Amino acid sequence: MNVKNMDLAAERIRQSVEKGEQVVLYGDSDLDGVSSVVIIKESIENLLSLLPDERKKDYPKILAYFPQRQSEGYGLNDKALAFIKTQTKGGLLITLDCGITNYDEVADAKQSGFSVIIVDHHLPIGGRLPVADIVIDPKQPGDDFLFKEYANAGLAFKLAEEILKEKMSPMLRQNFLELTALATIADMMPETDENQTFIFEGLADIENSRRPAIQALRNLLRGEIFNSTRDLVSKINGLLNSSRMENHITFAYTYLTEPDIIKAKKMAKELLQEHESRQKEVYSLTENIKAVISESPGTPFIFMGSANWNIEFLGAVASRVSNFFDKPVFLYQKYDDFSRGTVRVPKGYDAVKAMETCKELLRTFGGHPPAAGFTVVNKNLEKFEACLKKYFNNLNLE
């Protein structure tokens, strides 16, 4: 038994290779989404390598796309679809680490001539699914697979196994497992069941990885002392958490798919510089918020935003603030007409459930119980805060 529709999606992808169909991989821009895109892209490329040369040269280039969070937010969106339509005339669109709540956008893609496969691990709101051709999401209604808490890269790995079957070499399997382990840890998924296996096998020999990007990072960090492999992984994940983007491609994706070790070493140094700069920004904003909150410590949750904040930093800041105060934290960047935010909550809380009670006030929301995001029109900000206050006050009374 496997996750529902895994075999159908694998067969559809194999058919796309046979037909020479355009494939678009649309992933979330965090490490889980990026790793998922890399795994599926390289799985398709392995199928392509088995084709005769005359067919390979005519195969359309796989198009990867990642949304710019500041201007596009999370998930499939109108701006992204408009761009994709300028690059291709239909084909197979695969969303990775997003798509499960993009009802209108998936319908638009279908009307524009795309077949759509959704590979997502987020909770479908109210059990409703988009009108995709195939949906892989262990949390969808009717999926009887017992384990539900995969990172999206875990689902991508299982899909890669189904696509390639005996054609997946041991080296490629280990390569994919390394990315799966990194993404599972980065996305804070429960380290139980199959996730535990992914992490154990993926990290078993990561210091001798065959992927140039991971080799380069290990070489760059050679002088640092790590108490464990997990400490090394934490540092690698921090460096790969890059917000840089060019032409809708994240720097992390470009880096992870770089085949040349010399170029990868140069790119690794750029990642380190960016990481150090980002850490300063995160520390400064975290300390400012902690100082403000300390003046009014009685609130059951933290709800703050500013036009001067950068959404790319707010996840890390919210995590630190939530850990410090042991409270749910909602931080947002304010734009002209709407605000886009991120949520982190302590163990025992459910960020998605909290926002679901206020869903009529939100443009979009979604994520996981400990970490989620939202978009709200500015005229609803105060109402949203009041709704959350009612929810958390009632929760604390239970």
Structure description:
The chain is α/β, with parallel strands linked by helices. It has two domains: 6-204, inorganic pyrophosphatase (n-terminal core), CATH 3.90.1640.30; 296-397, Diaminopimelate Epimerase, Chain A, domain 1 (Roll), CATH 3.10.310. The protein has 16 helices and twelve strands. The chain has helices at 6-19, 31-48, 53-56, 69-72, 78-87, 103-111, 152-164, 170-186, 193-203, 212-220, 229-240, 251-256, 261-294, 311-325, 351-356, 381-397, and strands at residues 23-27, 63-65, 91-96, 114-119, 134-136, 245-246, 249-250, 302-306, 329-334, 338-344, 364-367, 371-377. Strands 2-1-3-4-5 form a five-stranded parallel sheet, sandwiched between helices. It has a five-stranded mixed sheet with strand order 8-9-10-12-11. A hairpin with a 3-residue loop joins strand 9 and strand 10. The radius of gyration is 21 Å and the shape is globular. The mean pLDDT is 93.
Quick gist of this model?
The protein has helices at residues 6-19, 31-48, 53-56, 69-72, 78-87, 103-111, 152-164, 170-186, 193-203, 212-220, 229-240, 251-256, 261-294, 311-325, 351-356, 381-397, and strands spanning 23-27, 63-65, 91-96, 114-119, 134-136, 245-246, 249-250, 302-306, 329-334, 338-344, 364-367, 371-377.
